[in-house]
Design a protein that fits this description.
The protein is mostly helical and 433 residues long. The protein has 20 helices and no strands. The protein has one domain.
Amino acid sequence: MSPLRKIAFPTILIQFWVGILALTALSAIYTITMTHLHHSPHPWGVQLLWGDDVGWDLEVFRDRFLLFGTPGFWQLRSIPLTYPATVGIIFALLYKLADPLRDYLLLCALGVAAWIAWLVRILAAQRVARGPATIFALTITATCWPLWVLFDTANIEGLVAILVGAGLLAVVHRRWGLAATLIGIAGAMKIFPIILLALLLSKRRYREFVGGIAIALAATLVSLAILGPSVPEAQRQINLGLRVVTTDDALAATSPGPDTNHSLYTVVRYAVLLAHHRHPHQAPQPGRDAAMLRPAYFAYLILGALATVAAYVLRIRRLPMLNQILALAVCAVTLPTLSRDYTLLHLLVPFGLLCAYAAAQSPPARGLAACFVCLAFLFTAETYFNFVYALSSPFRALALLVLFALLLTYPFHSTYLDAEDAEMDRPDVAAIV
């Protein structure tokens, strides 16, 4: 067979494709039934059917950022700025535009188009025909629940995901300085992406690792100075906003609005509620709920950080690079106490790398099919139905936990990803790019 001859579309990717279509159809049927037949006040599947508040996560700060640079910026009695300072600067720049919501969503759409083109290209590099590869990529995009949530909310996570995805590709192509810069800026915006700098540690790129941390700190300090009127005062105001998030989400029986928080802390919170016979749909009891959840919250923060460091030192850094990229991305979107479903967009680039790896395997490597099963549940708009508790968010958290365990157990060796820098010019390695 000629080495240039196209191969049949990999069976494991066909099975994934069928699975995401089936899960999406199930969710749509259940949502339509609950909404239009049973007149449920909360549709349980498709976020786009939840109302006319499209772009709320961006539009809610409009009045504040129209006052940017004036004393009224911090004095406005409205929803406080609930993001790190660097995001505040991004908002200030967006609100210089004539139509911030339209232009931001256009940027996100361009990012999605770039991801589709990239996925088709890397599958074609594994001799998969471009036609089926394009259909596969478009199907994933159309059924991708994190994308639905992003375009419905216009959360700034879209920009963070673009930066992180580009940073991961810089790691893949050994552009260490660029990777450190992109991941550092993303870390200054949402904090949790900073964990991906551990990929540089694994490659003994200590200078770039420190540089990435320095870039995140510098971006934060410069942003605080611009927000003003002074760095300490700007940080105090930021802290007030972050405290609101902790009170309204982490220390509350349930998040305000539809619960799309797939953090592992969601499972811990549900366990505490069950232990105290507290139903999340009961009338809010802020004082009691906070007192009940606070010990578990702080224990989760401490034990989660220690467990992550231990997992990296003892196992993750010894794994093939594909495992490391996926495992650290899973940590980044699972460990924060508040991690809305749009953060699952950070798995799209690692997922693409896994698809290219699967296309090169015959037969599939052990553990690969189970990883795709977990990803199917993470990417599609399942409901997991609504018995006594809403199950979608904790189910996603458990799927992430299972995926993490699989990545620690089954090594996925890649000729290209695991090649040393000196081997990059070899024809058998370079051909995979």
